[in-house]
Here is the input.
Amino acid sequence: MCLGVPGLVTDIDDLVAVVDFWGVKRRVRLDLVDEPVSVGDYVLNHVGFAIRRIPPEDLQTTLEMYEQLLHEANRSDLMSADVRGEIEAGSK
Amino acid sequence: MPAVAAEERVLLKHGAGGRAMRRLIEESFLRAFATDPERSPDVLGVSAMDDGGAVRIGNRWLVMTTDSHVIQPLFFPGGDIGRLAIAGTVNDLAMMGATEVLGLTCGVVLEDGFPRADLERILASMRQACREASAIVIAGDTKVMGKGEVDGLVVNTTGVALTSRLVRDAGLLPGDRIIVTGTIGDHGMAVMALRHGLDLEADLRSDVAPINGLIREALSAAPSAIGAMKDPTRGGVATAFHEMAAKSGVGILIDGAALPVRESVRGVSELVGIDPLLVANEGKALIGVRAAAAQQVLDALHRHPLGADAAVIAVCTEDHAGMVMLDTGFGCRLVAEPEGDLLPRIC
Amino acid sequence: MNVLEFRDRDRAAALGRALARATGQVGRAPVSVMHVCGSHEQAIAKFGLRASFPRDLNVIMGPGCPVCITDLPEIDEAVALALTGVRIATYGDMVRVPGTAGSLADAQAQGARIETVYSVAQAVDLARATTEEIVFFATGFETTAVATAAVILAGPPRNFSVLSAHKYIPPVMEIVAEMPDTRVEGFLAAGHAATITGCGIFEPFVARHGLPVVVAGFEPLDILAALVRLVELVRDRAPEVVNMFPRCVTREGNLNAQRQLWRVFRPIGGRWRGIAHVPNGNLRLRDEWAALDARRRFEIDTSALWHHAPSALVRQCICGNIMAGIASPADCRLFGAECVPDSPVGACMVSSEGTCRIWHQYGGIPRLDAGLTSRAPRAGGGVSCPL
Here is the structure.
């Protein structure tokens, strides 16, 4: 259902874009995207149709979100880490 | 568990190189032609299900192998059915350790109406492949069938060679390394893209080539350290590894990061959801070698033009015997045997 | 865009540790969550992520594989049509799924003409290149149905028609949530389907059932991070919809695609293989498109197929319960006997990631030792080989 693959738009002719996926190019239909697509944009492709234009800033947002998640998960462990640190210090 | 009865009809899946084909061979062909190794110690017969058969002559082995080729399309980027026919047989002999081909046969069944020009092209291709392999076709047969009775062209090639040391596909030991002689997935991906009209602009070409010269270098580098060899044709590296693991009684752990894959093949594999490990290669070999000699063999391969991308991709383990595993970098998973021809996926 | 950043191993390892901690903090074991997307299971399998899941976290594969849940009557329609000589184009996934008397691949072996395509657009091109009838056997969830809708709205040639077996995922989550024995405490929603529908559609579901839903992408980091978030929500008893795939999913989704989808298709109740009736789970062409509907263009008679095979077998299949996470293959009478990979009865044996297929191949859910890689000598790593 979901084999969606992101690719880089290198050429556009009306509703058909040429998209580059790791060096492999294929024509992709643009009938379904909900915002204008330009050369240089990234699109998510599913069965030969672009279903989403991926805003480059959103990539960074996602990665930051994962960092935040890790940070929060670690915070709850800081307390135990302190305790562990004390124990280790005490046993040296 | 009750035995599942043999199928009533032979189906397409039985020719695809996977489990179904193995069952057909075991149930029908082995029963017809099996030899008892105890009674005929000088014969390596069909029961071994190796890349070829062999008969001892004095202190050497005469190795024989046969292949029928029914590929569609007949012409593809990087080669054609003719090149495939020669390379396939030469490489099977090489996998048994027999790299000096004595002679090849070429049997052809043509469909009524087959273009003469295509035939000439295919024969020229075979001649070229023979030159590369230092082999010659010394006998042949030609038949023509009615329109629709055969699909274009079927080629059968048989090859004969001598070797003083027979290499099986069953001699792996725990700790052995397995080397692949170059990039994987090239042939299968190129043919599949063409066959299903994937309409891709990609540098996909078959790797079809005779590699007996390359294998000769590997064998010279460490003659007694190579325990098993197999060429990963239909069913890819995965199928070949399953056979090697089962026959040798070891587990095989693949290092995902070490797999040499061309960028275009990787790209297509992501796009259509087909793993390069499951896809046919026609110019590559898997070489199982004792750990201490792995570097020498690798160096020898790298010195040869066809071995530039050779890499150590797996290690044999004592645990999980018979299983093929892949270390993805995130964790280990089992590699399944492909069932039938691979098709592009949407899911 | 570097997809490899979402495959970064150090971050993945860190997320794996966070997942183990969060699971431990829930205070009961096991914690069961479900994903409803075949591609999530494919990604988990491909990257070997199950090795990073903590022992006490049960990540169940739900009814999210369109191959698996396409029911017999629909496959029979395609097979029957194919056997009358009509050319069928379809996605590769469906070609080997068995109907009552065989699959499309079996029909092909008997002379039927089946074309495997990567895109529905290719099927349309095929129709343009010939005067013969081309029927597109349309399978897949809403992510895929939108493409079918697009080609229909773009005006395909006269000789093109669609046999729709498309499905709609949200209704089946309701069914699973309402199953009496279900232990599922949270759902991972399919990221690409949500790209179309938006994550807002899960809000009523969450309100009704009090179960958190996290929308996840398909790279290793996406899946691990989403699971961490989901387990945290379970731990905190916080039934919310959380979008962990913001680069592709918004609350409203892709309105353009939705418009096209619902202009062409209407949802009807139908059987999902092994799950019985799913209200609004099947997509059919609206009357406006009757001319393009293969069911109305052709008289498809599947009765001939029923004589060939024992349909009793199918009645004993418990794939539905397995997919819903309340039974295991060992509970099925057919498993390993009449139902094996070479002759699968149910969907779970058909799909390469189906639970039964995996069980059959590996004698259970394979648990490879976490220590396997550290014990075995490293195989490769560049040119030189460690001795």
